[in-house]
């Protein structure tokens, strides 16, 4: 099977009620108010008619202002967000590095969470047990690995999450910004690990505001603007186009 990403006229909408209401009670109250209630808010059209293909060997940078659609695009490719219309084809093992601290069970130990997080990544308990010692060594949080996650500092949680999420590479690697993973020594290890994953991946998608990083890693750039891909071409030209559109 050839690893690839092919999108044809892909649209993605968010239900506005998910953003507008702060609780179930206020949501239900607004629904029973009828036409005389508050003004309706239209659903958010997060991705608009996106058509493109990405093949093995490509390193693609995603540019755009905050809210332009970069992160939504990555999560759609990862299969986390269902599309509203169009066709999405993603062939290959996908590994993503965003929201890496999600999926922790606070009352369970770090060691137990290694297993839980592995299951969320689609890996088997047997496989997670086989790489547990490597993850523990990389996270380097000492005896806290056998303490509940709720006793961890924020930095310790990020270190363990990063160690788990990057323990296994994939054919298609999705990165959202550069990971801040703790102290200076750990950051050196983290950057090296990311570099190894990038080298191993057949396809890389990297969303970042760091143009220097994008231009050093990627050859192709996609510029997002209000949910649309308004430029698709060489990364250097993509940076120029982004700056022109956003007046920076």
Automatic annotation (TrEMBL):
One of its GO terms (molecular function) is ATP hydrolysis activity. Transmembrane segments: none annotated. Keywords: ATP-binding, Nucleotide-binding. SUPFAM superfamilies: P-loop containing nucleoside triphosphate hydrolases. InterPro entries: AAA+_ATPase, ABC_transporter-like_ATP-bd, ABC_transporter-like_CS, ABC_transpr_TagH-like, Bact_Polysacc_Export_ATP-bd, P-loop_NTPase. Pfam families: ABC_tran. GO terms for cellular component: membrane. Residues 26-248 form the ABC transporter domain. Coiled coil: none annotated. It comes from the Bacteria. Gene3D superfamilies: P-loop containing nucleotide triphosphate hydrolases. Belongs to the ABC transporter superfamily. This is RfbE, O-antigen export system ATP-binding protein RfbE. It comes from Rhizobium mesoamericanum STM3625.
